[in-house]
Structures are given as structure tokens and as C-alpha cells.
Amino acid sequence: MNSQIPVKDVTPAKAKVESVDLYASREKIYTRSFTGLFRNLRMVGGAFLFILYFGTVWLNWEGHQAVWWNLPERKFHIFGATYWPQDFMLLSWLLIICAFGLFLITVFAGRVWCGYTCPQSVFTWVFMWAEKVTEGDRNQRMKLDKTPMTAQKFLRKLAKHGIWVGVSLATAITFVGYFTPIRDLIPELLTLQASGWALFWVGFFTLATYGNAGYLREQVCIYMCPYARFQSVMFDQDTLIVSYDPRRGESRGPRKRDADYKAQGLGDCIDCKMCVHVCPTGIDIRDGLQIECIGCAACIDACDSIMEKMDYPKGLISYTTEHNLSGQKTHMLRPRLIGYAVALSVMMGAFAWAVASRSLVELDVIKDRVLFRENEEGRIENVYTLKIMNKAQHDVTYVIEADGLDGLVYEGKKEVTALAGEILSLPVELSIDPEKLPSSANKILFRLQALDDPSIHTDADSRFIGPSVR
């Protein structure tokens, strides 16, 4: 007997398609104002940096701006010294020293650079201050943003953005002023006579400061700054970090000031969320060490103020180490920290020596394309052009000599004066009796020395070419 196999629909059911956002949507952070030791330290540090940045550009030194990147002439003036493109190795050296300094600070104390001295953080704190002055504290700003637009709200927003634009514009003009003398730049901007590039860079840095400190804020620290990504590699269990002590704080819960909270099974944390409200990156430090934490210690100040009001010991949130949190001993001196410190000290010492011993004159010798010629007296002549670069801040008279061959005669100016910062071209001739030439290509040496200062001197090699010697 034949039986039919039943037909079944095996078409797979439609898959349920779900989408997952790769990036979490940003929620606006409303920070609360606070006071405390670390906030005061941050204000002092920020004020110092602002005075340094906005004040240095107005200083004059020996007839020019004290700090001035003179790009058209390719000179960098920093007080009494002038650096040329040939000295840019020193700049690279300085950047390496700064990198090692940052590594040392990170190994020792985490991201304190970010919290206290990073320009992004400093300008963000200034912009947050402008918010508080014009729109009120955290709760007032949240309430203001929820209300419909009114004349009062418009004026408050206008005042806030006016301060933001003013600070951004001042920052941009100051920055460009380090490349174009600021005493010339400001009148040119006011009369619209500034160059197109000056206008472009002022506009660019105004927009960048306004956007970074006004809107992006913590997004720069979390997503855009590479330091946040690799700083965790330099952390160890003895690195100082801002951390919450769960052994003391848990379990969390509200209570009255005079309540016996330990009998209720509670820790010192009253779960007021003040540490979250003051955090510029919006994290909860009680969740542990996070990449978003910039080590600004705002949560420490906020928590200490609450502990003081509750008559509890301060330090529930503090600068501590992972070893200390786990009840182990913290090792302040450790091999990696010592290694960074030694390397940094050696590089700083070598850099200081390189700057102190930098020659204030440079000599380049350019030989004429004609290899040699014979003059009327039968002597062999070679022609050279000496490029003398006077790096000093004053005029210098130099004495020029050439030797390396017996009987070599220098024909040309033996004394020449170069103005401050001048590159002088000087044609010279050397001649010799052909019988005194040991070979067809002979090494010679040009010597240059300041007439009034023997410490200013240099020399340069070249070749004296003659006919083939048989």
C-alpha cells in the first residue's frame, strides 16, 4: 500500500529585524555649582593659565613681541632668543619631554592634567560659569530649558551666548596674535584691513572654542581626545585615582542626620547623587573607575561637603589607589615611575645644555658651479658664497678665515658685519699655487668668529678643487 508523504510548508519565518544604535544619544549635562579645596586649586591654576596665555602676547622684548612666531621670516622669538628652522629639532625635543612629563604625571596621579590644566577643561569651566551667571544653577537651568521661549528666557540665552562668543573671540585673537603682532592685529581687525588668512584663523578658532567649550564639552574628552584612550595603559594599582570607597559607603540610602544608620544596615553614602550632579562628564563615580573620569575631583568636594553636614568623616570619595581600596599597601616609588622620572630628568638636562650651548651664528658654504679656474698669475682659484646667519639679537662683526692647505690665500672681505637676525651672503675667492696642491680635491675649513665675543664662533667644511695631480 502506497502512502503519501504529507506536504509541509518549510518556508522560514521572517526574521525579526532589530537595530541597535552604535552610539548612545547624548543627554545634556546640567552641572551643579559647588565649592571646596580642589575647586579652589582648579580656579587658581586656571587663572594662572589665563593670565599666562592672554598676558604674554602683550609683552615686548628688545623691540619686538616677546613671544612671536614670525612665519613670513621663519623666525620664532621667545624673549631674548630667536630660533630658526634649523633649530626646530629643539622643538621636537621639547615635545618629547612634554610627552614624558605627561606619562610621569599619569603613572603617579592619573588624569590630573585633564582635570586641572587641559585647555579644554579650563575653557569648559569658564563657559559653565557663564551659564550659572546668566541662567542660574542646575535646577534653574533645567527648568528654564523646559519652559517655552519668553522675553526673559531669550535675554538670558542671549547674555550667555554673548559671553561665550566674547571669550571665544578673545581667545582666537590672542592665539593669532602669537603669529601676527597683536598690537598690529587688533587695529587691522577693527578697520577690516587684516589679511584674509588672519580673518580666517580668527574666525576658525572663535568657532572652535565656542563649539568645543560650549557644546561638545565632555564629548571631546570621551571620544575625541586620544589621551583618554591610552592613559589606562599607564595606570597601575598604585596610581592615584578619584574613587569611591564601597567598604565604607555601602549600603546606600537616605537617612536623617542624627539617625543610627549603622543599625539600619546603611553605610556612609546617603545616595544624594551630589557627586553625579557636579561631574562635568555626567558619570557616577560610585560605579568605579571609568574612562570618562577626568580626575577633576569635583565629586570629592561635593561629597566632602555632604559628609561635613552629616557630621561624618570626609574622604568617602577621595584620591586613592586600587591597592589602598583593597586594604593593601600603596607603593609610591615603583620601577616604572622611577624610570619615567630618570628619563625625564636626563632629557631635560640634555635639552637645557643644548639650548645653552646653541651657536648664535651659522655658516653655510656654497661652492660655485665652475670647479676651478686659473688666473693671470697661474694660480688656481675657487669661488664660494658664504651664507652667514646671525642668530643674535644684536649686530655682530665677524672675522673670516680659511685654511687646510699650505699656501692657501683668502681673497675677499675678512671682516663683515651682520645685522641682528640677518642672513648675509658673501662671495669669496681662494687661490693657491698649483704646485702646492696635494690632490685634485682637497678638504678646507672656513672659520667664523665674532670680533668682540670669542664665544660666538663656528666653522664649515668645503672642498678646494684643482687640476689632476700627476
Automatic annotation (TrEMBL):
Residue ranges of every copy of the 4Fe-4S ferredoxin-type domain listed in the record: 259-288
Keywords noted in UniProt: 4Fe-4S, Electron transport, Iron, Iron-sulfur, Membrane, Metal-binding, Transmembrane, Transmembrane helix, Transport
GO-annotated molecular function: 4 iron, 4 sulfur cluster binding; metal ion binding
GO CC terms in record: plasma membrane
Pfam family, one: Fer4_18
Membrane-spanning parts: 41-61, 90-110, 162-182, 194-216, 337-356
Entry-linked NCBIfam families: ccoG_rdxA_fixG (TIGR02745)
Descriptive protein name: Cytochrome c oxidase accessory protein CcoG
Organism: Pseudomonas xionganensis
Gene label: ccoG
